[in-house]
Each structure stands twice: as structure tokens, then as C-alpha cells.
## 1
Amino acid sequence: MPATAVRSHRRRGTSRKASAKGSPDAPKTIRARARGRAKGSASVVALRYGRLAAMGTVAVLILFAGVWGSWGAAQHVMLTKGREQGTVEVTRCGADMCTGPYTPVSAGSTARARVEIEKSVAVRKGRTYTVVLKPGGTEAVRSGPAGVLYAWVPFGGALLLASVVAAGGLGRVRVGWVLAGSGVALLTAAFLAV
């Protein structure tokens, strides 16, 4: 084989090796791809944390709304010091409210011919209930263990809703089960006490 043929063959071999390694721009291309992957993974991480933040906010808002909905009645039932306590015999029920005479039990409370109590599954005509009067009016709230449990029913519903968000939206299945179990226990206890 002549020397010129060997040289040209060697040149072709080196050019093949150079093309196998890539062009002089190959490191730039590799870096650009790496940057693209880093940007892609950064956006995936940002979306993931954004989803977690959004779902966490939704779960907290649901729980807050449940507490807010329950506290209107629960504060009167749980914080009874200084409030008028007694019993109401329900004699008449309308669309939203039931009424009946109030008999005082606590010191300083006065009898009333007619007080109102919200009509619900916890109140039936012809039955007598222990109640706490709301300040400055004739509206009564059912007291005792049944009254406490019934006052927290909206929070029990909020626990069930938040469990779905925690398990599905946040991917926290155990937390979802704990929230759901707590909500079911609260609602069941309220149902049995009423």
C-alpha cells in the first residue's frame, strides 16, 4: 500500500473518530441539553410545590370554615360560666324554629314563657331539653354532651371534606384516613347522642 493511501486512510479514521466524539460544538450542545433538563426539572418541582401549597391552603380553609360554622353554637354550649341555663319544653315547631316555656336551673336566671330553639334533628316537639340562653335574647342552644356534639357537626363534615383533599390533592393518605376517621367518629357520636 503506498504511503499516500495510508495517510488518507488515517485521516479518514481520525475524522470518523472526531465525528464519533462530536463536533467542536458538542460540549455546548450537551450543556444546553443539561440546562434544558435542569429547567424542566425545576419547573416540575415548582409545579409540585405549587400544587402542595394550593391543596394545603384549601384543606386549611375547609377546616377553618368548619370551626367557624361550629363555633357560633359551640361557644355558648362549652363556655357556660355566667350564662343562663335551664330547660325548654318544646310545644310548637315552625319551619326553622321551635318554641316553648323556659324553666331556669342556674342561679340568677329567670323563667320565660317563650324561648326559641333552632329546629333540627336534635330538637323534637313534645320533648324537654337542657339549654343555655344566648346573651341578650330569647334564643336557646341545646346544652349537655348532646348539645356539644351537635354544635360540632359542621366541623365533622369539614373533617370529611379535608380528608379527600389531604389524600387526593396532597398525597397524604394516612393523614386523609385520620381526618376521615375523626369526622366519622364525631358525626356518629352526635347522631347517637341526639
Note: The chain has a mean pLDDT of 83.
## 2
Amino acid sequence: MDTKHCAVDGGVDAIPAPGPRGTTTFDLIVPVDLDSVEDDIHDTVDTCTSGDPRIVHELLNRIHPGDLLRATGTLVQPPRPGEPARLVVDALRVLDTALVPVLRDMVMDRYGDYCIIFDADRDQVPVLTALRQWVGLADNPDTITRLIDIHERMNDGDA
């Protein structure tokens, strides 16, 4: 089995889940810079796990979806073809926290270079860039595109 020590920066996809024997598992969404690639490549999702009690406690009590983390550890290749590799985390650093409180019933989605957080209990939709910079609050899901258009015009100097 091949292993490789590495560090990965990415956003937490969902609430970390407790695993067997005091471990925890979580997924990091690693954004792809769409301007630097020619092909239509999607973000990658790296599955991570840790058994370090300090990291497990941090993940289960203080980490929320949307937080930007640097996970350092050993990338372990899967025992069978077709299964994903897993990063066994031995060091964790919070690079940035989510700008909006994320509750258990929220869903994060991606619109190109933007992240959208849907909450079934609210009409308003928080919009952030893929790098977790605040864009604004759309009045409802139908106005997300308008908010993104305004943000892009302002950044291009057209507004």
C-alpha cells in the first residue's frame, strides 16, 4: 500500500462524523482555480480521518461546514481499485471560519466560483466566493443569480 505525507487546504463539506474507536471522518472540498485549467474540472473532495484525540475533539465540537482548514497527514491509497484514497490527519489548522452560522439542516452548493448555503427554514440565501469571501444575502433562491451578477460587475469596475 502506497502512502504519501501531504497537506491539503479545503472547506469542510459537512459536519464531521464520529467513527469507530474514537476516530472521526470528514470531507474537505478542495476548490479548483477555474481560470488556471483548460478542461472543465470540478472541485475535488478529499475524505479525511483522524484518531488523534485533540483533533477529534476539535472536529466534533468546533468545526462547522464552510470552515477552511489545512489538514496535514498521510495520504493512504485504497486497498482496492475504485475506492477513494483517505488522508489520515495528524495536524489540523483552521485557516478561516465560516462567515455565517451553519446549522445541521443546511446544505452548501456550488455555483461556479460561488458557494451558496441553503436553509429550509429561511428564504434568504447566503452567498460567498469559493474562497469563502462574503458576497451578500440573496432575498430568496430566485435572486442568487442577480446577486452574483452585481458582485461580478462591481469587481470588474463596471458598477
Note: Helices lie at 53-61, 144-156.
